[in-house]
User: Which sequence fits this backbone?
């Protein structure tokens, strides 16, 4: 029990420190906003400034914040629907950030005089003696040993109780002020669905053409060769039933070609819906994928429950593609795949300790992963700074 209490207290102090740093940072950005207000009123700069605050607020709250693009209306930045919110955030941040930041600065700034006044008040000249509770001079040990610890206790308790709550309040106000309205969310959603629908149709057409090409150039060609060999064998047997060696050779070649055709056909079927999913389920399929990865990979599975077949296929292909990238490009020494069932659906995270720098534009398969996930109304987040680590998070609905 004491160990648990100590761990809880330790986590709380970490929150206090993070919250204090966050609020002091908002004080700094509030001052910068006031000084650079004319420049920040330009929509493109206002968007970048607002995005910076959204990212910090999301990290403090532990809430994923979807990235917002640059002001995208070519030649008409004022026509962007989010521009009014970005501009409104400027005075809100200036007032709110400076006010709350000054409270933190006042609290932290008065901790130092209390810490110094308690043991060292006598080292100062009478005119320069430290003061407690703003204007109480410390001229004797009685004052130092009573008011000093009392000020330390009160300010420390205020920081412990207040900093996290104040920081969360600021972060929530930030996200609320910069969040789109219901109509804007609906418009954005329609745009995303329109784009993903077009991408899915293109991908579906390309996949059908690939399957048709594989069947035509591979399996169909082998079946034609088998038919021709069987026809020659049949004719040879009819012409001379005693020529068993020639007929046996044709039948052997036909048998080998049939086995090769079956192998190719299974490979085509596997790319449509992997049989391992039907045989062993998502957990078994992920186990097989991680075991076969060229980099040591740990699989951490929660209780996945019942997952729709379409979601299983997307997760399987996404994890397989991500681990292929890890083995080929990341120079990683280890990777982790975590899958959890959440209230909203299925959450999958693929992490590696490689060099990072993964970019969808370089053709590393990330674009294909995103396309598959978006087709099911899911969300993909790729965090891959230079130097690593790379974290790919998939959120898929399972309703």
Assistant:
């Amino acid at each position: 029990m004491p160990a648990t209490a100590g761990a809880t207290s330790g986590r709380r102090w970490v929150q206090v420190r993070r919250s204090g740093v966050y609020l002091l940072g908002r004080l700094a950005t509030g001052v910068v906003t006031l000084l650079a207000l004319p420049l920040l009123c330009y929509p493109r700069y206002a968007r970048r400034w607002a995005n910076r605050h959204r990212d910090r607020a999301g990290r403090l709250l532990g809430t994923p914040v979807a990235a917002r693009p640059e002001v995208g209306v070519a030649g008409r930045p004022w026509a962007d629907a989010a521009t009014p919110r970005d501009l409104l955030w400027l005075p809100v941040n200036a007032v709110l950030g400076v006010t709350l930041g000054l409270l933190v600065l006042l609290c932290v700034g008065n901790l130092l005089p209390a810490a110094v006044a308690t043991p060292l008040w006598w080292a100062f000249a009478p005119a320069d003696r430290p003061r407690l509770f703003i204007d109480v001079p410390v001229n004797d040990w009685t004052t130092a040993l009573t008011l000093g610890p009392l000020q330390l206790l009160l300010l420390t308790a205020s920081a412990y109780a207040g900093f996290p709550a104040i920081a969360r309040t600021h972060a929530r106000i930030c996200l609320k002020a910069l969040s789109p309205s219901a109509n804007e969310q609906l418009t954005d959603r329609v745009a995303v669905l329109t784009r993903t629908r077009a991408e899915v149709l293109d991908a579906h057409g390309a996949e059908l053409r690939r399957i048709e090409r594989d069947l035509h150039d591979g399996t169909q060609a082998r079946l034609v060769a088998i038919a021709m060999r069987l026809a020659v064998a049949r004719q040879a047997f009819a012409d001379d039933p005693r020529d068993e060696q020639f007929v046996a050779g044709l039948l052997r070649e036909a048998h080998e070609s049939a086995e090769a055709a079956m192998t190719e056909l299974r490979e085509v079927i596997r790319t449509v819906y992997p049989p391992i999913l039907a045989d062993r389920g998502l957990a078994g399929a992920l186990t097989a994928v991680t075991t076969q990865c060229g980099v040591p990979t740990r699989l951490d599975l929660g209780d996945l429950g019942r997952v729709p077949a379409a979601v299983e296929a997307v997760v399987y292909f996404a994890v397989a593609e991500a681990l292929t990238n890890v083995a080929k490009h990341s120079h990683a020494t280890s990777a982790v795949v975590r899958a959890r069932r959440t209230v909203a659906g299925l959450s999958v995270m693929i992490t590696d300790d490689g060099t990072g720098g993964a970019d969808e534009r370089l053709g590393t398969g990330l674009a294909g992963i995103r396309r598959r996930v978006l087709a099911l109304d899911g969300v993909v987040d790729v965090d891959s700074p230079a130097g690593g680590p790379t974290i790919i998070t998939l959120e898929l609905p399972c309703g």
